[in-house]
Amino acid sequence: MSSSPPTAEKAKSDRALRFYQDVLGLERLHYGMWLPEDSLTMDSLKAAQKRYEDFLVESIPDGARRILDVGCGTGELCMNLKAAGYDVEGLSPDINQKRVFAEKVDAPFHFTKFEESQLDGGYDLIIMSESCQYIPIDKVFEVAAKALAPNGHLMVCDYFVLDQDAGELSKSGHDYNDFLAKAESSPFEIVARRDITQDIRKTLEIADDWAGKILLGADILTEKFRSRNPFLWKILKWFGSSKYEKAVSQRVLLDADKFAAVKKYEFFLFKLN
Ligand SMILES: C[S@@+](CC[C@H](N)C(=O)[O-])C[C@H]1O[C@@H](n2cnc3c(N)ncnc32)[C@H](O)[C@@H]1O
Question: How many domains is the chain partitioned into structurally?
């Protein structure tokens, strides 16, 4: 493990991991796949995340043994793949994920960005679960093709942007048409795909529900203070305005209808020819 002092970025990522795991009790970092009848509860969210992971595992092509999980997050998928008998390796540029992985999975870990990786290659399957969007689009297929064994597979499950003019919502995810064009000009062919945009929407709904409650809670807690100290409240608001405005402008990211209008969350299985 690295002994260098934590940078602000590392500390931020560590806080995010601790929030997911210690506060929310979540072991996984992705949106999950909900059922239409699911209620918006923490247990349903955990079940949705497990359902998504099961779907990825069931989609592993027959005969695949050696698997690289790119952007392996908390190592949960790797741990379960290893338990199922696969020969698995994790990869992430995140030092805190490296630590969590080492505690959880007895398997090789590549501490690097995928696009900068120096892998020996020979993998039967590379999985990018909600991590493809962080890898430069020009490098996704190029680096995967080098790291895979002949006729190997690349599994990508992630969200993509359909409308580049939708403000905050357009900021994360590869452009859908660009991604398909890169795939088309690569040595890969699509052998399976599934649009799961509707299956993930309850994750946004539950997050929006929490955000609403937090804002309402803050409103209730500050009500007395605001009425007794209007001037002081104005000053405090002025100091906190950039953060407050950012939070308000980013709440659109939790709007499930807008997400579905601007983005597509899709599963792809590519085969290397
Ligand atoms: C949203 S998390 C998804 C984690 C996990 N795959 C899952 O489905 O829960 C994104 C992951 O991508 C990783 N990541 C970010 N940039 C990356 C890069 N350039 N190369 C490889 N992984 C990257 C992050 O460290 C993190 O593990």
Answer: 2
Shortest-distance atom of ligand 1 to CA 49: 9
pLDDT of 14 reads 56
Q: What's the domain range around 219?
A: 201-254
- What are the pLDDT digits (tens) for 142-199? 999 999 999 999 999 999 999 999 888 898 899 999 999 999 999 999 999 999 999 9
Structure tokens at 89: 């390796």
Task: For residues 88 and 164, state if they share a domain.
Answer: yes
CATH number of the domain residue 139 falls in: 3.40.50.150
Q: Which atom of ligand 1 is nearest to the CA of 76?
A: 9
State the distance from the centre of ligand 1 to the C-alpha of 52, rounded, in angstroms.
16
Is residue 3 situated within a structural domain?
no
> pTM score > 0.90 for this model?
no
29/248 Cα distance (integer angstroms): 23
Distance 185 CA to ligand 1 centre (A): 25
Using the mean position of ligand 1's atoms as its centre, give its distance from the Cα of residue 161 in Å. 18
